[in-house]
Write a structure and sequence with these properties.
The structure is a homodimer. Chain A is an alpha+beta fold. The first copy, chain A, is 32% helix and 27% strand. The first copy, chain A, is built from 13 helices and 21 strands. In chain A, the strands form 5 sheets. In chain A, strands 9-10-13-11-12 form a 5-stranded mixed barrel, surrounded by 4 helices. Chain A has a 5-stranded mixed β-sheet with strand order 18-17-19-20-21, with helices on both faces. A 3-stranded antiparallel β-sheet of chain A has the order 4-6-5. In chain A, helix 1 crosses helix 9 and helix 2 (36-55) packs across helix 6. At the A-B interface, strand 1, strand 2, helix 2, strand 3 and strand 5 of A face strand 1, strand 2, helix 2, strand 3 and strand 5 of B. Chains A, B: Residues 234-252 have a biased composition (Low complexity). Chains A, B: One of its GO terms (cellular component) is mitochondrion. Chains A, B: GO terms for molecular function: ATP binding; proline-tRNA ligase activity.
Chain lengths: 441, 441
């Protein structure tokens, strides 16, 4: 897929670079087509999440895009989220909706299959598209109307076990963001429409964020700023699944207002520290739901004494497409994007300075691939300068330049902007050298 | 995810076994939730297709679920497929539809990015959900309203190159079905609503199929039986993307009628052979589209002389969820499902006869996994007989039984029903032995 051009636009943001570099295209307001480069990033995030989910014994499934109004009425949530639902009727006039999140369907599914406490705990997740008819889609993947979420649902017999699960999964979420070397603030949050007892938000500290987080200057304890959340809730614009809460303009106002109020406020946790306010971009959200959904949807198991006991649930979401947009914003500079190694569409780009790709160059490619490196060879019929600027724009962690020195003496130039490396290496030493650079990223 | 039960139902079909074995659940008529076992099968098919698509230089992308009525009006297809579209309006009253297929969106996307003959050929594919509001969803995944398709679109400068591409991809499709060891009939077909000049259908010969294929007794040339297709078309029930054409009851009638008519008919190809009629289940469809979409949607490139030239397109679809349903039907017997090795949710199931899983058993599991085998250890708290019947029901190609002989003398029993193997092997020899069995499947 050809990129859209090499000339940078004045004041172009990360989203603009994603478009220009050919990661995605906008089809309609807030609706995007994921092009091959963008899909590679998305699949890398998915696989990384698969590993983390496997480590907690969660099984992956894939629920339908559709849910029914009937089910959302049972959980008493239909009217709360109605303005943002995409709704439709099928040819038999069943009232369907495109799921913005899957608590209802997941609870109903597990209720139809789990009948004994012996089957617990159960941990199920998926990585699928979700839908939200935003009033004002903006910032590309940061607030889109169709988005990709990794959502995990946990089912435990009692509250104590469910809280243990909650802490365990929160730690796994932090580990996932650490894999990507992203500085994430974990903030206490209001459970909002999800119901349930407590909840945390995982924020990337960034000026484009529409949330405000209050961080204690002494103990570091972070709290999602409730003034902003409450105001957003009033407007029916409350996030329920890791999408943005509040509106940007509004959040900015809150920001100033909050500064005035909270400069004097003390930390709830240590009771001594004053609070620093940061703009946050929400990437993930965790909720201990308790029996908020299991009771109305009749997800219970028999226990030794008394009536059947409702199962204690948790739900956990990471915004996959939003994460891609957020990393693009956070790491873009004047030259282009910069991907963490584990999210990069390719780890290594080989850029020949002439249009010919002789067999020795293919052997070199094979040698890098045989090292387990995810490498791409830019054999497009374009000028060398264009290709180099395109590689900078796309943000590959390592670029191997095969120029005159390669043709004359089999010497390659290895560039890694994030480590400040620009070194000439003999081609036989290249695989080992690049492997070492990549593994230190 | 617990299975639904071990007791077989009288006359249960493949779909019934998929439900009972816990591969999927029906959410609503024609709408299914893919459970972990089913999703594993789907992902294996996806990865196999990724390899085949890579071999023809096709890049994977992921278009939105949404398309617009406006675009389908431009291609003049909206009214033809209208009865089967899921339609909706967003909050700004844009008229959207859930795409049943992606020719329009793909053509519009490529028109926005390809501006020179130098960028051609382009080959793009995706594996995504598609939607079709069937009048009568039935046979589970064989005719569902939400389904998974692998769809490939090709863009060539001229007809000759596009026809070459067509033949190349047809061969790749045949190779894909050969990977799965599925006997597939490739039949000449009518291009129908897709427009374009010619087309082939890939059928699995099976009594549950709703199509009829006429096969020459002499040269083997196969033709989709047009009486059935024409009658189905009249009813507005024409398939455009690998979903079933015609209605089953009707196809049966056609069958008898066709037998009368075609017993005398001669093969179009060799002009001598008489025709044998077979019931077919359509798994894939290929179309040479020519300029059917590139002209109305203005996908053209400048050429040396004269006006811009419209690009010649092809489109190709494999019904991924339908394939899963079809293989379940084709291969189920009284004991359960039988997956081709490359589609099996796991290649090897280890079934211990006692509930304990000692460390030596985990080491054995690790040794099998280290061989590159996709293995599962059934450590559920269930009786041995239940687990064995569950393994039969789920259709794992190889089952390793760890019973008394294993506890006493480290001997394992290896079962492979499709090769008729039931052999006792020392545990240290197990990985090599199972590897050999699996590689001959």
């Amino acid at each position: 897929m050809p990129t859209a051009g090499i000339a940078a636009t004045e004041g172009e943001d990360g989203h603009g670079k994603l478009i220009r570099a050919g990661f995605l295209r906008q089809a309609q307001s807030g609706i995007f087509q994921m092009l091959p480069l963008g899909l590679r990033v998305q699949q890398k995030v998915e696989r990384l999440l698969d590993k983390r989910m496997q480590s907690i014994g969660a099984s992956r499934l894939s629920l339908s895009t559709f849910s029914t109004e009937e089910l959302w009425q049972k959980s008493n949530r239909l009217h709360k989220v109605a303005p943002e639902l995409f709704r439709l009727q099928d040819r038999k006039n069943t009232r369907l909706l495109l799921s913005p999140t899957h608590e209802e369907e997941m609870t109903a599914l597990v209720a139809s299959t789990v009948h004994s406490y012996k089957d617990l705990p159960v941990r199920l997740y998926q990585t699928t598209r979700k839908y939200r008819d935003e009033m004002r889609p903006r910032h590309g993947l940061l607030r889109s109307r169709e988005f990709v979420m990794n959502d995990l649902y946990t089912f435990d017999l009692c509250q104590e076990a469910a809280i243990d699960t909650y802490h365990h999964i929160s730690a796994v979420y932090s580990a996932f963001f650490a894999d990507l070397k992203l500085p994430v603030l974990v903030a206490e949050a209001n459970a909002g429409h999800m119901g349930g007892n407590y909840s945390h938000e995982f924020h990337l500290s960034h000026s484009v964020g529409s949330d405000v987080v209050a961080v204690c200057r002494v103990c570091g304890h972070a709290v999602a700023y409730e003034g902003a959340a409450a105001a957003a809730q009033q407007q029916g614009d409350e996030g329920q699944d890791g999408q943005a809460k509040g509106q940007d303009g509004q959040a900015k106002g809150q920001d100033d207002q909050a500064k005035g109020q909270d400069d004097q406020a003390k930390c709830r946790q240590c009771k001594t520290g004053s609070l620093r306010l940061e703009r946050g971009l929400e990437l993930a959200h965790t909720f201990y739901l308790g029996t908020r959904y299991s009771e109305p949807l009749d997800l219970c198991v028999p226990v030794a004494s008394g009536p059947d006991s409702p199962i204690h649930m948790g739900c956990y979401g990471i915004g996959v497409s939003r994460l891609i947009g957020a990393v693009a914003e956070l790491k873009a500079d004047h030259r282009g994007l910069h991907w963490p190694r584990l999210m990069a569409p390719f780890e290594v780009a080989m850029v020949p300075s002439s249009p010919q790709v002789p067999p020795e160059m293919l052997s070199l490619y094979d040698a890098l691939a045989a090292q387990g490196l995810d490498v791409v060879l830019d054999d497009r019929d374009k000028r060398f300068g264009w290709k180099m600027r395109d590689a900078d724009l796309a943000g590959y962690p390592v670029v191997v330049v095969l120029g005159q020195a390669w043709r004359d003496d089999s010497m390659c130039e290895v560039q890694c902007s994030s480590l400040g490396i620009n070194q000439t290496v003999a081609s036989q030493a290249l695989p080992a050298f690049v492997g070492k650079v990549i593994s230190s990223l």
